[in-house]
Write a structure and sequence with these properties.
Length: 214
Amino acid sequence: MTFVFEDIDDVEMERRRSVVEPLTDAVRDLVDAVIRTEVAEGEIPDVTAAVRAVTERLRSRQSDGPYGVRYTRAGTGMPWGNPAVGVRNAVAPPMRVQAGDDGLRWADVRLGAAYEGPPGLVHGGICALLLDHLLGEAAGADGTPSFTGTISVRYLRETRLGPVHLEARTDRYDGPKKFVTGTLSDADGPSVVADAVFVIPRWARATPPQEAPQ
Ligand SMILES: CCCCC/C=C\C/C=C\C/C=C\C/C=C\CCCC(=O)SCCNC(=O)CCNC(=O)[C@H](O)C(C)(C)COP(=O)(O)OP(=O)(O)OC[C@H]1O[C@@H](n2cnc3c(N)ncnc32)[C@H](O)[C@@H]1OP(=O)(O)O
């Protein structure tokens, strides 16, 4: 696993973000339009060719693999391919994570047609994705990296498409384990709750229990 440091400052990161974000937003809009369009079927082949032409243009120069999790010189993360928050990923709603007091992490997200499961309702996997990510951010609020070890997601009731609010925080620690909880709410209040154990991987522990010299 490699974390790439880009030799740029945060001003340059913001400049790059401002260039690429409108493209990603345009693609999100395209995804929504494809789902909801009612243009005549005869128009679809032309539109398909136009989209393929744009894709070809972007593919004329591209990286070999995924974007990775890059960092600026100041250590600001650029997980721009991430499916929950990625600035370059149209699959991401996107969720913009905010920091509150005492390690609270929260976000307001609008979930439209691309996130539908049951009719008019949010797909359960999308709730789990967003909660997993936000709980991960809450686990990371102390500055140590950790992976989702186990996550339990309880769907209290349906979640309506539209604006949703998410919150998460770390409740307690036990060695390398962080116990994190969170909620996802729609306009009627909490609809999904999550409990997770995030584990600091051995390579990131201050005194690795297994690899410590004898
Ligand atoms: C370092 C990651 C950084 C990732 C950055 C990513 C994106 C950056 C973007 C934004 C940055 C902000 C935050 C990140 C946000 C979201 C991230 C989303 C989260 C993910 O998408 S992440 C991918 C899915 N995730 C995995 O891909 C994990 C695969 N897995 C492993 O990497 C190992 O399996 C690991 C590390 C879990 C444990 O391995 P290990 O060798 O360190 O464990 P070890 O044996 O030392 O156990 C020590 C104590 O943890 C207990 N324990 C062990 N495993 C457990 C489990 N599964 N559940 C509950 N408890 C468990 C033991 O029982 C023992 O506890 P006890 O002593 O009490 O028994």
